[in-house]
């Protein structure tokens, strides 16, 4: 998995990488990419076709697209494009999804301080954007809730990347990771990302409510394929 951000202001930003690192003629020759805008309105152009992407909207670009360009539609509040790319063996069409088109799933309770809504953009289910292996979406915590994904779990068949955002300037998330019997934590601030290997739990608690973008890839695309960890087993 490859991840990054593009924040165009006065100039457009083309998606460019050191091709020696991936051994292909262009970045998406054998890869796919999912993009979620965590800033102001912008436009993503894929081989000359422009797609206006607003806040919390997603664009999937399939294998074989040679040129990707990021643009902000205003300098006062520039777009902030967060992207995750994975290898791809098949070409699926480029497709946009708004938050209203995403599949929402409300979870948690106020008693556990983890009321949240999961929005799935790129996934195998009905209405999802189809991909080779990338699964991508966002989770929004309701106001007054701080915990995500607790009890924790692992994905023994997939790795996952989190990008935390919508945190105040002085806010942090204590992100839990590591093997269930030997956990550690990272202090994460607004618009910082973490990579969770397949053997690691991934959970967190913030000093306020927040949003995070999640992306997974691995042996399957089944969102529900996870291995729960009992609270008594955490150390």
Describe, in plain words, how this protein is organized in 3D.
This protein is mainly β. It has two domains: 2-97, pectin degrading enzyme 5-keto 4- deoxyuronate isomerase, domain 1 (Jelly Rolls, Sandwich), CATH 2.60.120; 102-233, Jelly Rolls (Sandwich). It contains one helix and 21 strands. It has one helix at residues 19-22; strands at residues 2-6, 13-14, 31-37, 42-46, 49-53, 58-61, 68-72, 81-87, 95-97, 103-107, 116-122, 135-141, 147-148, 153-154, 158-165, 173-179, 182-188, 192-196, 201-206, 211-218, 227-228. The strands form five sheets. It has a six-stranded antiparallel β-sheet with strand order 10-11-12-20-15-18, with no helix packed on it. A hairpin with a 2-residue loop joins strand 16 and strand 17 (182-188). The protein is globular and about 55 Å long. The two termini are 29 Å apart.
């Amino acid at each position: 998995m490859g991840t990054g951000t593009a924040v165009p202001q006065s100039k457009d930003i083309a998606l460019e990488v050191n091709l020696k690192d991936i051994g292909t003629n262009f970045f998406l020759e054998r890869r796919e990419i999912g993009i979620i805008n965590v800033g102001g309105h912008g436009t993503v152009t894929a081989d000359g076709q422009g797609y206006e992407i607003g806040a919390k909207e997603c664009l999937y670009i399939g294998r074989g697209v040679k040129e990707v360009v990021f643009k902000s539609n205003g300098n006062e509040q520039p777009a902030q494009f967060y992207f995750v790319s994975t290898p791809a063996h098949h070409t699926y069409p480029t497709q946009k999804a708004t938050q209203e088109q995403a599949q929402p799933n409300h979870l948690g309770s106020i008693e556990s301080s983890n009321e949240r809504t999961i929005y799935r953009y790129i996934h195998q289910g009905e209405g999802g954007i189809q991909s080779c292996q990338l699964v991508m979406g966002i989770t929004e915590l309701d106001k007054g809730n701080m915990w995500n994904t607790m009890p924790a779990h692992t994905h023994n068949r997939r790795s996952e990347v989190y990008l935390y955002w919508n945190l105040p300037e002085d806010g942090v998330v204590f992100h839990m990771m590591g093997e269930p019997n030997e956990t550690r934590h990272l202090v994460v601030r607004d618009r910082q990302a973490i990579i969770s290997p397949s053997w690691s739990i991934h959970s967190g608690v913030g000093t306020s409510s927040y949003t995070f973008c999640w992306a997974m890839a691995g042996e399957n695309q089944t969102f529900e394929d996870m291995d729960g960890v009992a609270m008594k087993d955490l150390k």
